[in-house]
Amino acid sequence: MRIIKELPPNIDQIDECFKVKHIPSILYTFGSEVYTLSDKPIPIWIMKHEEVHSARQFEYGRMLMEEMGMEPDKNEENSVGPVEWWKRYIDDPEFRLLEELVAHQVEWRVFGELHNRNERRLYLNAIAARLSNEMYGRMVSLSKAKILIKDKE
User: Fold this and answer.
1) 81 and 60 in contact (C-beta within 8 Å)?
2) Are 84 and 38 in contact, with CB atoms under 8 Å apart?
3) Model pTM?
4) DSSP string, the chain
5) pLDDT digits (tens, 9 = 90+) for 82-97
6) What's the number of CA atoms in the CB half-sphere (13 Å) around residue 79?
7) pLDDT-wise least confident of 41-45, 86-90, 97-101, 132-136
């Protein structure tokens, strides 16, 4: 995945819903590119989280094309997936929770493979707090987020 030091092409739609344009540390995956204004290195477990979003965006595009009876484009750069995935992500809180949950579970698994028990406990609190905060629309409580993230262990 390529990292681009700017805001994503759909930032106006994202910001209209989430009011995050002013937060430089946020990562946005759009297709095979990760957009961020931060200069900080991205840890491998966060990149794995973003790779989940990328793969699911392209898969979403393939699914939509098949539903319309069209042949999915083999060239992912031409995929409608990222555009349509983001539209649904912004408009549908249940879809957003599912997409974030899958990505957070992968992030948790990768972090866990590289860190000790105490570090994992602290990180679970941190990522559950992120999943349950207003950035994602407070879709789930902190305690429920911890349970859901650990569900794939």
Assistant:
1) yes
2) no
3) 0.91
4) -EEESS--TTHHHHHHHH--TT-TT--EEETTEEE-S--SPPPHHHHHHHHHHHHHHHHHHHHHHHHTT-PPPS-GGG-SHHHHHHHHHHH-HHHHHHHHHHHHHHHHHHHHHHS-HHHHHHHHHHHHHHHTSGGGTS-S-HHHHHHHHHTT-
5) 999 999 999 999 999 9
6) 25
7) 132-136
